[in-house]
């Protein structure tokens, strides 16, 4: 059998090998049910335990307070770009901090439903930094302030949350979900597509403070786009992305076994440091992001020559380091080093980069 590659994809991305093996073992017969989780009624006792355990484990990992609901929805992170304004824009005003393509898309989508204000942006320097958000012109009547906490394409991360001056904070955490501990109580709503750091594409997890879940949504909001319908039905209003949630549940158990989010943070910091330290000393490769805003998860870098970038990507791929090509909008390279990327993956990548640098001096 072919050995697994080191997969640096930004998403869908690497998952823990242990989880994949377990899923493979259970493919034909889940715990004596004689069927795969894919074939099972979402109303069955067996499935009910799967989704309830997943929620309980996520609550434990993130220490989610009791006054927050956890929703397992579908439509990916992008569906939330609409669902958030439809449910939360009571005054039809929201403030957006635009730090990359995903935040920009969310901002543009919100503008379809009300007045979306771009109160800060880092587009002037190709989103290579996080703007100072300590004293922004927050709108008096803003229903919420929106951020994309980790910018998957550009490799920046908010190290401190913006000062929202008391307004509810909404955060897209797709690419930093469960990579380190967070204080959930600082947010009104946290959401993320799971295909970056947790599971199969399609599932989006929404963690929302209960008082924000109301019947009072924008007129015309489809039933499937109401948080209340999903909250009232424990994410089982309709058939949920059942198999995807089962894999997420396995990843939550795996994370608990690794020591939880404090341990993941230490692990992720160690991994990222290996790569960033090399980028800082390299004569060929360099990082593209302001140092203090560097992401632990997505590490973009360039050589300065498109030809050399292409040569590097080609040789790296042949050596088993795959999906290192940067996003089509920025070029260069990007190594996504999510929770499931083992430290050896990063060590070996850096060794390969050193060798490449020597051969191309
Ligand atoms: C990938 C990504 C998205 C889009 O996710 P989909 O599930 O494809 O809709 C949104 N936000 C961020 C931060 C992402 O990384």
Mean pLDDT rating: 97
Rg (C-alpha, Å): 21 Å
Tell me the series of helices and strands, N- to C-terminal: EHHEHEHEEEEEEEHHHEEHEEH
Uncertain residue segments: none
Q: Which word captures the global form?
A: globular
Number of strands: 14
Major pleated sheet: 7 strands, mixed
Percent in helix = 25-40%
Q: How is the topology of this model organized?
A:
Elements: E1 6-7, H1 17-25, H2 45-62, E2 68-74, H3 76-88, E3 93-98, H4 101-110, E4 115-121, E5 145-148, E6 150-151, E7 156-157, E8 169-172, E9 189-193, E10 203-209, H5 227-232, H6 242-257, H7 260-281, E11 286-287, E12 298-302, H8 306-318, E13 321-322, E14 333-336, H9 343-359
Parallel strand pairs: 1-13, 3-4, 3-5, 5-8, 8-9
Antiparallel strand pairs: 2-10, 6-7, 9-10, 11-12, 12-14
Bound molecules: pyridoxal-5'-phosphate (PLP).
Q: Quick summary of this structure?
A:
The protein has 361 residues and is of the alpha/beta class. 34% of the residues lie in helices and 16% in strands. The strands form four sheets. A seven-stranded mixed β-sheet has the order 2-10-9-8-5-3-4. Strands 11-12-14 form a three-stranded antiparallel β-sheet.
């Amino acid at each position: 059998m072919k050995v697994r590659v080191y997969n640096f994809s930004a998403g869908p991305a690497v998952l823990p090998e242990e989880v994949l093996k377990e899923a493979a073992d259970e493919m034909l017969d889940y715990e004596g049910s004689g069927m795969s989780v894919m074939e099972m009624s979402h109303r069955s006792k067996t499935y009910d335990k799967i989704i309830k355990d997943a929620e309980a484990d996520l609550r434990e990992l993130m220490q989610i307070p009791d006054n927050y609901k956890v929703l397992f929805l579908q439509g990916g992170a992008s569906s939330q770009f609409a669902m958030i304004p439809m449910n939360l824009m009571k005054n039809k005003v929201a403030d957006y901090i635009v730090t990359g393509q995903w935040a920009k898309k969310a901002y543009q989508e919100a503008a379809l439903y009300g007045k979306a204000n771009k109160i800060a942006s880092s587009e002037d320097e190709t989103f290579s930094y996080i703007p100072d958000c300590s004293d922004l012109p927050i709108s008096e009547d803003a229903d919420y302030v929106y951020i994309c906490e980790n910018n998957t394409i550009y490799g920046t991360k908010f190290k401190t949350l913006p000062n929202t001056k008391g307004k509810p904070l909404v955060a897209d955490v797709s690419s930093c979900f469960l990579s380190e501990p967070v204080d959930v109580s600082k947010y009104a709503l946290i959401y993320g597509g799971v295909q970056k750091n947790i599971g199969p594409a399609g599932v989006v997890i929404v963690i929302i403070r209960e008082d924000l879940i109301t019947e009072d949504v924008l007129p015309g909001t489809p039933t499937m786009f109401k948080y209340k319908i999903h909250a009232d039905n424990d994410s089982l209003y309709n058939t949920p992305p059942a198999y995807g949630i089962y894999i997420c549940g396995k990843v939550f158990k795996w994370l608990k076994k690794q020591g939880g989010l404090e341990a993941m943070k230490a692990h992720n910091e160690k991994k990222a440091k290996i790569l960033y330290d090399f980028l800082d000393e390299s004569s060929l490769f360099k990082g593209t992001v302001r140092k203090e805003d560097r992401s632990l998860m997505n590490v973009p870098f360039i050589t300065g020559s498109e030809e050399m970038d292409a040569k590097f990507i080609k040789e790296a791929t042949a050596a088993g380091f795959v999906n290192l090509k940067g996003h089509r909008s920025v070029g260069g390279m990007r190594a996504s080093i999510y929770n499931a990327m083992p430290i050896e993956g990063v060590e070996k990548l850096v060794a390969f980069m050193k060798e490449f640098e020597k051969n191309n001096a």
